[in-house]
Amino acid sequence: MRNIRKGDIVGRKSYGKDIYFKVVNIIEIKNEKVAILNGLFERIEADSLISDLEIIPKNMVNERLEKSSKIINKRINKYNYKRSYEKTVTGKILHLDGDRKYSEKSYNYYKKVGLNATVKNIPEYKQPKVVNRLLEIYKPDILVVTGHDGMLKKGKKYNDIFNYRNSRYFIETVKQARKYDKEKDEKLVIFAGACQSYFEALISAGANFASSPGRILIDFLDPLLVAEKIATTERYKFVTIDDIAYELRDGKNGVSGIGANGKLKMLI
Question: Which pLDDT score, from 0 to 100, does residue 185 have?
Fold first, then answer.
């Protein structure tokens, strides 16, 4: 088999190739080649010795892609049917995503279900630096801050911010957004986090919903479903995680929060 290269879809042999990853970079540490990996279907970031990786055959990748597309299309069809007779203005969404492919998929999903959403591909470490400017430009009702994350030592040091790959950037982005929101008094609803993110710190920073209470993987679609629920719920109704959990891949273990009022405006 040929050498593994940047852009390949791989699985970790030591984990039974349970997660499909894209190789986003290859570096050398102590004379060993290490791949930096982003989940193809989950919002996880990881690293692995090249020697532990195996390329996933194209037909297997295509099968997973087709299965994922069917799930998304089923939701889109259900949504369009449910809302086709209502005259409303849905909440405006600003979505910052650290993954370029996920940004494209997110935009397509929002567009197909008829939501008013702007999606920006912003690397996680840059999100705190640009969020205020983007909030000023787009003036959203809902902010989604996501990308990829992961614990460096899974199952240990839950309260150590440096044990998370990108949580500190998500936390600072939420803080910046809340500072902006306090000045504008716009009652912004915020979702923040990705796989295994530092849930408690994200909520303390000001997020309404965040991942991941159980320090588990979350699906690509999970942040979008939270944003969709808020955007399509009337303003006088309060949305709790119980109203959303059944639609998320792993329910309240993957996403939870303090809740928020909906952002839907009724025209009649």
Answer: 76
pTM score of the predicted model: 0.92
Q: Where are the alpha helices (DSSP H) in 88-209?
A: 100-112, 127-138, 167-184, 199-205
- CATH dotted code for 87-266: 3.40.50.10090
Beta bridge partners of 37: 23, 46
Helix (H, G, I), strand (E, B) or coil at 94: strand
Report H helices in the chain: 58-83, 100-112, 127-138, 167-184, 199-205, 222-231
What value, to the nearest 5°, has the Cα angle with vertex 187 and ends 160 and 203? 15
| Domain locations along the chain | 9-56, 87-266
Does the N-terminal peptide bond of residue 212 adopt cis geometry, omega within 30 degrees of 0?
yes
Distances (CA, A) of 170 to 8, 189, 190, 193, 199: 27, 15, 11, 6, 10
pLDDT digits (tens, 9 = 90+) for 154-188: 888 999 999 999 999 999 999 999 999 988 777 99
Residue 218 has pLDDT above 50, yes or no: yes
* Residue 128 CA neighbour count, 13 Å, CB half: 14
Distance CA 91, CA 115 (A): 8
